[in-house]
Amino acid sequence: MKKIQVSPSILAADFSQLGNEIKRLEKGGADLIHVDVMDGHFVPNLTIGPPVIKALKKNCSIKFDVHLMISPVHKYIEAYSDAGADIITIHPEATDNLSASISKIKELKKKVGVSLNPETKVSIIKEHLEQIDLVLIMSVNPGFGGQKFMPEVLKKIEELKNIKIKNSLNFDIEVDGGINFKNSKDVIKAGANILVSGTTIFKESNGNIKKNIEELRIP
């Protein structure tokens, strides 16, 4: 099994101190930095764009795991690549041609992620899995931080893990939404190897980021 990685979501960070918050995550042992990009159209919220990502990336040695919740997504892929995204994750529903969008990300020499909302079936991406580096399973409805984990997605994680094993594929399985110290164990057991967490990392243990990241990694 792949090493369990933690990708803290800066959606739960202090936005007035984002540069310092990312330094805290680096010191705390984060494997990736998860950046949620929302457009107020594909999801009902607005967050940050390429200029902010570019500014934050300048002083960060950790890879940026950028989740694009924007539609139509294809025309924005290059801008986020140029801004410093290392992994670009898109939703199948946000592009007219998933194959073309996957190819575009690969042409830009970035890792390709595809995200599945709670109601989106694995079958929608099955034919693309050989080209995908990461599948992001949403365990809440995207758009807001601080939501409760939806345990019904555990079956989807297991389904994806079984497809991966059966076909000898090597993509990462990432889970995002309401991840805490208890359900993280279930998520890892189901087959995930990357956990996205915001509130738990920034708020638990009186904000002891290192301790919280280490605890989330425990199977």
Structure description:
The protein has helices at 18-27, 50-57, 77-83, 98-107, 154-166, 183-190, 199-203, 209-217; strands spanning 5-8, 32-38, 63-69, 87-90, 111-116, 134-138, 172-176, 194-197. The protein has 219 residues and is an alpha/beta fold. Strands 1-8-7-6-5-4-3-2 form an eight-stranded parallel beta sheet.
Total number of helices: 8
**How many strand segments?**
8
Largest sheet: 8 strands, parallel
- Percentage of residues in helical conformation: 25-40%
Spatial separation of the terminal alpha carbons: 11 Å
Gyration radius, in Å: 16 Å
What percentage of the residues does DSSP assign to strands (E)?
15-25%
Unreliable runs: none
The helix/strand order is EHEHEHEHEEHEHEHH
Question: In one word, what is the shape?
Answer: globular
The strand order across the widest sheet is 1-8-7-6-5-4-3-2
**Average of the residue pLDDT scores:** 95
Structural class: alpha/beta
Write the layout of secondary structure elements.
Elements: E1 5-8, H1 18-27, E2 32-38, H2 50-57, E3 63-69, H3 77-83, E4 87-90, H4 98-107, E5 111-116, E6 134-138, H5 154-166, E7 172-176, H6 183-190, E8 194-197, H7 199-203, H8 209-217
Helix pairs in contact: 2-3
Question: What's a quick, concise take on this entry?
Answer:
By secondary structure, this protein is of the alpha/beta class. It has eight helices and eight strands; from the N terminus they run βαβαβαβαββαβαβαα. β4, α4 and β5 form a beta-alpha-beta unit.
